[in-house]
Design a protein that fits this description.
It is found in: Cytoplasm. The chain is α/β, with parallel strands linked by helices. Helices cover 39% and strands 14% of the residues.
Length: 155
Amino acid sequence: MPGKTKVLFVCLGNVCRSPIAEATFRDILKKNKLEDRFEIDSAATSAYNIGDKPDYRSVLTCIKYGVYIDHIARQIIKEDFYYYDYILGMDESNISDLLIIKPSNSQAIIKLLGDFDPKGDRIIKGPYYGTIEDFEHNFQQCVRSVQSLLTHIQT
């Protein structure tokens, strides 16, 4: 059996969108008994929230759908670009930041997570200054996108 597929989800602060993406992907992997085939994590492009737990609205949204979420915010580091197979940003600003810091010899695939959304909702907007409905929208985007990501990886 080949090595594990390594996936890193990235947003600005690593307390809203990327922990939701990580949690929803982990949930889908568990339901499909595929946890042993993947290694996943999430990170931030900024240092704003290093060491923080996910935003309480991210937690509430995940709890509402029975998805376990547990993460401590961290910032992406140079080594991540060599370790992870996929580094998936939530919006164009994340992608721009990732491409600036990506070492030239890294083989990591950098894409928007929303590129995998079958509804074509490509940008997963930062909900931090929004409402609980914005977190709900992000959650649904992530569920659709990570399911499609899993299909993509398996084919």
